[in-house]
Amino acid sequence: MDQEKLVIVTGASRGIGFFITQELLKKGFKIHMIADQEKRLKEAQIKLKQHGNVVYSVLNLSAREQIKDFCDQWKQEIFGLVNNAGRWAEERIDEPDKNTWDPIMKLNVEGPYFLTKGLQRWIVDNGRIINIASQLGTSGRAGMGAYAASKHAVIGLTRCWALELGTRAITVNAVCPGWINTESNQVEIKEWAEKEGLSLEDKIKEIADPLTLHRFIEPEEVASLVGFLIGSTGSGITGQVYEIK
């Protein structure tokens, strides 16, 4: 068990981040959750506290000054950092500008970059950094240029940080989920289905059928992989990119 080891998880109040937090608490880690809405953080903390020691900070990871202030005030050793917070939006290159590029890049790339840069001195030797990228960080999809570019960047950062922090035995890896069965994805797919005159079940089947496993991945499966990489089992793994789809 890892009762004395602290892990920071961003985007921890819902979706994949919530399940990562839950998995790590069950493994005995202390968790410091970060997200931008206190109401959701409080709700998550109430649900998760049965599993262990969990606290939170409200932080907008799109705001560089907020990140700097948070890092300047931090005074505690960290074992692990999970950069999970992110956003996506659709916009094709041949469409009018929808202002998707800057918000996506600020949260998905600048957020983890400046948070990790500010906190790395507090990460202990033999610590862990896990960046949650995406299947689109290794491929592409029409209409997802900004998001795919941001996740390609996250993978690039992962490989660079692994080299830079290897002298301290800090491992840095990326996890790249495909379609995940989360509440936010269900809401988005329901909107697509309504626009196309399809049932939610038919739209999900349309998306899932071409996938390798012909189904969505459960968030617990992503959390399990993160738990493996953060645990002692991941001590010799670094600079790697894991697709889970």
Automatic annotation (TrEMBL):
<comment type="similarity">
    <text>Belongs to the short-chain dehydrogenases/reductases (SDR) family.</text>
</comment>
<dbReference type="Pfam" id="PF00106">
    <property type="entry name" value="adh_short"/>
</dbReference>
<dbReference type="InterPro" id="IPR020904">
    <property type="entry name" value="Sc_DH/Rdtase_CS"/>
</dbReference>
<dbReference type="InterPro" id="IPR050259">
    <property type="entry name" value="SDR"/>
</dbReference>
<dbReference type="InterPro" id="IPR002347">
    <property type="entry name" value="SDR_fam"/>
</dbReference>
<protein>
    <recommendedName>
        <fullName>Short-chain dehydrogenase</fullName>
    </recommendedName>
</protein>
<dbReference type="InterPro" id="IPR036291">
    <property type="entry name" value="NAD(P)-bd_dom_sf"/>
</dbReference>
<dbReference type="GO" id="GO:0032787">
    <property type="term" value="P:monocarboxylic acid metabolic process"/>
</dbReference>
